[in-house]
Amino acid sequence: xxxxxxxxxRFAKSTDKLVEDFHSSISFDQIxxxxxxxxxxxxxxxxxxxxxxxxxxxxxxxxxxxxxLADIEAGHVEFEVGAEDIHMNIEKILTERVGxxxxxxxxxxxxxxxxxxxxxxxxxxxxxAVQQLLLKMERVLLDLAARHxxxxxxxxxxxxxxxxxxxxxxxxxxxxxFRRDYERLTDCKKRTNLLPLGxxxxxxxxxxxxxxxxxxxxxxDGICENSLDGVSDRDFIVExxxxxxxxxxxxxxxxxxxxxxxxNEFGYITLDDGYSTGSSIMPQKKNPDVAELVRGxxxxxxxxxxxxxxxxxxxxxxxxxxxxxxxxALFDTVDTVKKSLLVFAPMxxxxxxxxxxxxxxxxxxxINATDAADYLAARKVPFREAHSIIGQLVKxxxxxxxGLEDLTLPEFQQFSAVFSEDVYDYIKIEKCVAxxxxxxxxxxxxxxxxxxxxxxxxxxxx
Length: 462
Ligand code: ARG
What we know:
It is an enzyme of class 4 (lyase). The chain has 19 helices and 6 strands. By secondary structure, the protein is mostly helical.
């Protein structure tokens, strides 16, 4: 044996320093320490119960592991690059502290199932943390929707004014997106919450281990049912990053709207000073940097998704070192999505919605043209024909530089004799919103019902 490597027995030469640095993961996988120790405690306990090691040895291991955990948490432990990863660092410290019994911990275990276990435990905790942050976003969105359930604004398609809605209705669209994101994570938890430990290197073990006991100790719903799959599957990570990528897509779309809405051209919202930043040269500037940065950060999460898929796609079963690359992608995804959600919710909560501005801006752009067509269709003009008549009216009004509501009744009647005085009331923008009292629609009762069902859903998640 050449140096102090835990696996050094068959080696005649030390690892080249370049290789040691290259393959060491301790710089990033040390964040798994808590889960590694938690897993080792459950494993040692099981080894003792099964008589694979003595009860006394198991008790010594458990106690020493608990002490190491406390020492790491107190900042008293330094990890070594030479000990490669978090698993071997902790085993090394354990053996230094308790001597030969420390060397028994790895009986009936491999780093392959150990690392799979650690990531699953880590991910279960982080999924729940992300879900809590999503619920905070949902709270803010529902509150905004309630405050602005009657704040009329333009709805857009192709970023051209389309039909009037309310700001509340617009916020509820995002509420639905984040609700699906939350539910996707709940679904991902089901497949993450299985114990890989006991798969060992790839083919389980000759020792009479009790996987179900360990699963129970660690709070898993069950065990990975094939040992090769248990150590080589990382699809739960892909699923998580995919769910995170969609969260970032939704945040990024809302960011884009916030950037637009806070511009002088729109002026729909005013961000709180605490959630905007200035320019080093232009004194007047107040920039929506938070929204821009979240929009920008979505790119790294999409990159991690593709990176992880690509890393996995050509790997023969079972474990391959390529899989160590899952970690930085996963950790950075968790970090990015958590930080983004954390800052986004209070930014939304503190922004001011300029109700008068959004209402005034909703008026132009022939936003009531569909309603004018509906007016005719409701009076038995076939919709296609009505569409064409209003198209001609829009052209006529546009040439005059006025809106439909500014035309005189004789002008309306030049295009169709069906028009009468009540058309003016029919195409008022408040009326256009109120007339869409359909489930999922923008009219006040429909929005109130959507808020109510959102509240019920939110209350059920706690
Ligand atoms: N650091 C490794 C990883 O993250 C742990 C598993 C190593 N197993 C092995 N046989 N080299 O994947």
